[in-house]
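S1.2 Input.
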Amino acid sequence: MAGHSKWANIQHRKGRQDAKRGKLWTKIIREITVAARDAGPDPSANPALRLAWDKATAANMPKDNILRAIQRGAGGGDDSHYEEIRYEGYGVGGAAVLVDCLTDNRQRTVSEVRHTLSKHGGNLGQDGSVVFMFKHCGQFMFAPGSSEDAIMEVALEHGADDVQTDDEGVIEVTCEPGQYTTLKKAFTEAGLEPELDGVVMKALNEVELEGEDAERMQKIIDLLEGLDDVQEVYTNAIMDEAE
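S1.3 Output.
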């Protein structure tokens, strides 16, 4: 269906990330600080910090900002006691939602997430209610027209689990989370740059939404992503191209 173009969804997602870059930097800095605090300042020995560093680089964050955040976390300069929490729920049309948070106030965060969902036609679920609909994995999305043979060769040589090309020509590579950094480096060295990549919760089955339902679902996602304590939002909804 033209209205459910995966490529359009990827471009829309990337555009929203660019528009929110200032707030995105704040969230990544928090992620870097917590990772350095929990497992040390060496990215080569701290996978969580390595991922956060890659995320910061992808968001064009200056290296000095990254190093300051690492120093603050590893040196004990951050007095906040953040904890990682995942909330599960439903959006419009029964679409599943996962909300990953870093918070120093659990009550505040759950209240904000619950309010955002319920106000716009969703609801907060119990632990385990939707997470089984997603797979934790590394993911790389390449634009239509990319060299499928070149991507396939690098992917298979460096531990990818799967390479798929959809009807539009979007190439998706998935791997185990621990293989993500190795694969990302291999793609970069081969001159193959994905449109989007990261360690994600990939939806195993997608729910297609159109018209007002798509607009309402997009609003839920945007509002959740706008909450200070929310780091990532995942959904199995595929929304049409309506802005």
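S1.4 Remarks. The chain has a mean pLDDT of 90.
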